[in-house]
Amino acid sequence: LIYICQSLSDDPQIAQRDNLYKVGYTRGSMDWRLHKAHESPTYLMAEVKVIEVFECFNLNTQKFEALIHRFFDAARLRIDVFDEEGVRHEPREWFEVPLPQIEKAIQLLLNGDIVNYRYDLNTQQIVVK
């Protein structure tokens, strides 16, 4: 499963950001994947709301996730998150991108056309290369 989720954090450095989404994958259930989100730096030490889930067949979901992450790299959230022991983590799967653009990128990747496009950080749009 490829999923898109949104943080429910009340931390101002997270809560005040518009269009902040995590794009991830799991081989298990979403309930299992997210059951301890509030304890995980991957989920910004907060509960999350699942926005969308995409079932993927005959697809290497790890490669799919890596391609989406590379596509949106310029919009990657760059903050430090500290776990319960005070250890610093740098979450890598959160992006400040409008949801329709993430959905569009997923569809472009699924149909193989993503190689003809790039994400323009200034306009927050997917554009032809």
Structural write-up:
There is one protein chain. The chain is an alpha+beta fold and 129 residues long. 26% of the residues lie in helices and 26% in strands. It contains four helices and eight strands; from the N terminus they run βαβαβαβββαββ. The protein has helices at residues 12-15, 30-34, 61-71, 99-111; strands spanning 2-7, 20-25, 48-54, 81-82, 88-89, 94-96, 117-120, 125-128. The strands form three sheets. The protein has a four-stranded antiparallel sheet with strand order 3-1-2-6. It has a two-stranded antiparallel sheet with strand order 4-5. A hairpin with a 4-residue loop joins β7 and β8. α3 crosses α4 (99-111). It is globular. The mean pLDDT is 93.
